[in-house]
Amino acid sequence: QVQVLESGGGLVQAGDALTLHCLVSGSIVRPTTMSWYRQVPGKQRESVASMPADGGTHYADSVKGRFTLSRTGANTVYLQMNSLNPEDTGVYYCNAGIRNVNGVILDYWGQGTQVTVSS
Q: Is residue 48 within 8 Å of residue 66, measured between CB atoms?
């Protein structure tokens, strides 16, 4: 059974840095894509940073230059978040796209980790 485990959230002050970690377990194949999303109450979940299958890394405009997504292993990524501001507050979810035996990429989500940035 595939599990996506996040860690590293917390309460910080504006200007501080925080690192989120994501580990995918239970998959016999390397995730094709790995991404971080953010959700705040009343709004849709939005992509913050992603590593798609074609390579490279994509960032939301609001975090470019401040956040860095890195893949440290076949099933692990971390999101380095610098110069945090209150608008970065939200629940951060890790998403892993894993290709099944039919070639279809299925989405797996973690439980989310809360990031709160005080002004």
A: no
Report the distance separating Cα 67 and Cα 75, nearest Å: 20
State whether residue 115 is helix, strand or coil. Answer: strand
Six token digits for residue 62: 């609001």
What would the pLDDT profile of 69-117 be if each residue is shown by its tens digit?
998 888 999 999 999 999 999 999 999 999 999 999 999 999 999 999 9
Give the HSE-up count for residue 56: Cα atoms under 13 Å, Cβ half-sphere: 3
User: How distant, in Å, are the alpha carbons of 11, 30, 69, 96, 110 from that of 99?
Assistant: 35, 9, 21, 10, 17
Q: Do 17 and 80 form a contact (C-beta atoms < 8 A)?
A: yes
The answer to whether the CB of 88 falls within 8 A of the CB of 115 is yes
